[in-house]
Amino acid sequence: MNKSKPENRSPLKFFLIVFGLSIPLWIIDLMIHAKRTSLLNFSIIDIITAFIPLIAGCILIYKEEGKSSVYKLFKRIFDYSRITKKIWYVPIIFLPFLMYLLIYTVIRVLGLSLPNEFHISFLSIPVLFCLFFLGGVAEESGYMGYAVEPMQERFGALAASILIGIPWAVWHYPSIIQQGHNLTWIAWATLGTVAVRVLIVWIYNNTGKSLFACILFHTLMNLGRPLFPRDGIHNPLVDYPDIHYSIIAIAAVIVIFLWGSKTLARYRYSQGSQQVN
């Protein structure tokens, strides 16, 4: 059995498998016009497709490193023990909330249309959290559990974030197009998606390379979407993608400035450079 090291993994093969397995599902989705839920705007095909990064990662790890490494990948889903600096739970948990709050505030300050009345079903939050956590596991176990390490080793943290973020954004295009969004909307979504990947890599590199930290952040970013104030007509996150995604992009730019593009883990104003664990 080939006991290759993680840095010798092939991100290219990973993305080829992800898109190779996804394309037939996208075609099926297009042919049957799979019904989407009103709250989450997901179809059953979207849900199945979400697990493809995990499947691709498991296929390659099994082939390259053996069955034991696949088990190790699944164990990393709850590797919160790697987060030795508990302060990092602050950005993991509160940064998504802060960004959504800023989006709402900017829309309000600019006098743009917002729902007059909205209701949040707090009873739905635990269910939504579990669903989005499962989705975070399905995606991050592939992108961060398999692909990120060799890409960071070769290109650095920021470039790796972008090189993962762009195909990650493109991978969402079929679902976005099915929802009826135009090219301008897709362009803003691409910017925002790449920015989210920068934030995820930043968290990963500052939490002892914790996969759980990435999954939790991904979960909370997604959880904020259905909970954002809306009514039956207006969904501000959809109506104002320029505001929505530019604020996420600004957060990513701040992170790059403060922690550096090479590692995203050396705080500019610390006494000594923080090392990637």
UniProtKB/TrEMBL annotation:
<dbReference type="InterPro" id="IPR003675">
    <property type="entry name" value="Rce1/LyrA-like_dom"/>
</dbReference>
<feature type="transmembrane region" description="Helical">
    <location>
        <begin position="118"/>
        <end position="135"/>
    </location>
</feature>
<dbReference type="Pfam" id="PF02517">
    <property type="entry name" value="Rce1-like"/>
</dbReference>
<dbReference type="GO" id="GO:0080120">
    <property type="term" value="P:CAAX-box protein maturation"/>
</dbReference>
<feature type="transmembrane region" description="Helical">
    <location>
        <begin position="155"/>
        <end position="173"/>
    </location>
</feature>
<feature type="transmembrane region" description="Helical">
    <location>
        <begin position="185"/>
        <end position="204"/>
    </location>
</feature>
<keyword id="KW-0482">Metalloprotease</keyword>
<feature type="domain" description="CAAX prenyl protease 2/Lysostaphin resistance protein A-like">
    <location>
        <begin position="124"/>
        <end position="223"/>
    </location>
</feature>
<feature type="transmembrane region" description="Helical">
    <location>
        <begin position="87"/>
        <end position="106"/>
    </location>
</feature>
<dbReference type="InterPro" id="IPR042150">
    <property type="entry name" value="MmRce1-like"/>
</dbReference>
<dbReference type="GO" id="GO:0008237">
    <property type="term" value="F:metallopeptidase activity"/>
</dbReference>
<keyword id="KW-0812">Transmembrane</keyword>
<dbReference type="GO" id="GO:0004175">
    <property type="term" value="F:endopeptidase activity"/>
</dbReference>
<keyword id="KW-0378">Hydrolase</keyword>
<feature type="transmembrane region" description="Helical">
    <location>
        <begin position="39"/>
        <end position="62"/>
    </location>
</feature>
<feature type="transmembrane region" description="Helical">
    <location>
        <begin position="243"/>
        <end position="260"/>
    </location>
</feature>
<keyword id="KW-0472">Membrane</keyword>
<feature type="transmembrane region" description="Helical">
    <location>
        <begin position="211"/>
        <end position="228"/>
    </location>
</feature>
<protein>
    <submittedName>
        <fullName>CPBP family intramembrane metalloprotease</fullName>
    </submittedName>
</protein>
<dbReference type="GO" id="GO:0006508">
    <property type="term" value="P:proteolysis"/>
</dbReference>
<feature type="transmembrane region" description="Helical">
    <location>
        <begin position="12"/>
        <end position="33"/>
    </location>
</feature>
<keyword id="KW-0645">Protease</keyword>
<keyword id="KW-1133">Transmembrane helix</keyword>
